[in-house]
Amino acid sequence: MRSIGKKKRYIRWMLVMYDLLIYIAVALLLLILYRGPDQLTNIGVMQQTGISFVSIFAVRLIGNIYGQIWRYGGIQCYVKILCTDAVAFVLYLGLELSLPVEKITFARLLCLSCLNLLGALTLRMMYRYAYKCGNQETRKGRFWAKVLDIVAGVKAENVKEVQKIKIAIIGAGRVGVSFAEELLNNESSSYVPRCFIDTSEAKVGREIHGIPVWSEDEATLARLGELKVQEIVFAIPSMAADKRKALYEYYKNAGYKLKVYDYPTTYSPGGKRHMREFDIEELLFRKQLVVSDERTNAYYKDKVVLITGGGGSIGSELCRQLAKMHPKKIIILDIYENGAYDVQQELKIVYGKKLDLQIEICSITHKKALEKVFERYQPQIVINAAAHKHVPLMEHNCVEAIYNNVFGTKNLVELCEQYGAERFMMVSTDKAVNPTNVMGATKRMCEMIVQSASTHGHVKYSATRFGNVLGSAGSVIPLFKRQIANGGPVTITDKRIIRYFMTIPEASQLVLQSGALANNGELFVLDMGQPVKILDLAENMIRLSGVQGIEIIETGLRPGEKLYEELLVKTEELDKTDNSMIFVERDTPLSAEEIQRKLDMLKEACDTGDDQVAKETLRKVVPTFKKPEEVNKKVESLEQAKEHKKKEMKIAML
């Protein structure tokens, strides 16, 4: 430790010595060699030297100018030395006027202070420039090599730079420039920026940190080749999705490795931008919608929130979003302890002790265990994101799907009433609309339970319905990624299938905002825009991956699967909310007696343990539950009629 302290002192006083040499040179020039009308005697020289020396170096020491690490000095360091020397000049002037010493003109005094400051700034700029030119061992030679390059107009490439990966940065804005600075200031970085590519006329043709800024037209493949660029890094977070996709495909087809400098897609507060691989979701879909607002944030502030299924894809993102809103407490309830633990550790890293976070391992079907949780924490808001959601699996496990999804929701509703919760919010799905599978039918039954409870209970209830979630467990994109990574084939059940998609943050923000908007009993629906054809999705992912020869194979529709999903987003038939993307579906709640009758039927069917009996009973209690064959046959008939009409129109035109 002593040696480290000595080294620090040595470095500081070495810089003082260099500044002293500059001061001696300036004082020699202006106080001794100067031959003006106010020429000083030897005593006057000593007096002025003493006053100026004390003023300049005392203020610099007090201002901690010599405690800064100038190799990393930014603009704030240079502003600091300007301010300290300005104070030193005022002090010098005051002492010169007030003390009985030989006087010099104001211009001469100002010139001495300014020349001394100029010398100090020049010394530091030269040192920082030399440091950035290369590593510590060869800094001196590297610096003079750079000087010769500037004089001769030649770009000399050092050995260390040859070994680094050369990149072009798309975006010369704040993010791109900070990224370039980070690379330039880091000796151990494996990357070196060679050029910026930007569309701003104010920047194109100029340089930033010695790096040229080119327009997209100027940044031809030939010019990039001259600079030996190996990778392209996107550093414009706000770039439009279609523009990003076009640039991605252009440079990908040219053979460049592409990366992005930004937060990870699962961004959380306190995170840091870093260079990473592109997520395929960033290239396939529209820019993510920001649904939440100040009103939503204010609603959840200082509230005790219980999230069931809090370790799952949606539940964990609900926790991340809620943590930003400063709740009083978040209780994560899940049957799968690993998922809950992962979310807990992630949020602890970001928020530490600022966030009161509790974990409870429990199934929502276990009412006595649930009751202990309600009794202990007295949650004000309950969000139910716990559910069995995999369509094909639930077709063969109908009893379990009903127990977990339907009776689990019933348990939560009853406990919310018993323990005086303010609000209950249910996460639903587009598969609940005219369901053709067990999972969708159980979710529709949950919606009916919640809407019915809103008519006779004391808690405010709402349900939020959205489509497929990108990147969630069991979703199609992770499956396609794995299949492409393994060399294919990519499997789709039917080339005609279309689905609505949204991101996990969008889905979570929608749930939270709709819950804050709810008065009581609403079934919220998000306008998710145009649906995506799964075949197009698979083809785009294969093309963007750059892997050749991947085959797409149809495997046939799975049990309970239909060719399209419905969200019932017909704006003329829905009620509007304050958010233009959120609508309320008009639906008539059932009476408590009718709901109980349906639940009794389901309980009796589940007690048999027969999945087929349970499924048939589910069809009785959910009138819109249809067989997929009926729905898909209707779709096929409509498609055939459209094709026939198109052919007739072509014939008529001929």
From TrEMBL:
Residue ranges crossing the lipid bilayer per the database entry: 12-33, 45-63, 75-94, 106-127
Cross-referenced SUPFAM superfamilies: NAD(P)-binding Rossmann-fold domains (SSF51735)
Domain of life according to the entry: Bacteria
Family: Belongs to the polysaccharide synthase family.
Keyword Transmembrane helix part of the UniProt annotation: yes
Name assigned to this protein: Polysaccharide biosynthesis protein
UniProt organism field: Dorea formicigenerans
Span of domain Polysaccharide biosynthesis protein CapD-like: 305-584
Keyword set, alphabetical order: Membrane, Transmembrane, Transmembrane helix
InterPro entries: NAD(P)-bd_dom_sf, Polysac_CapD-like, Polysaccharide_Synthase-Rel
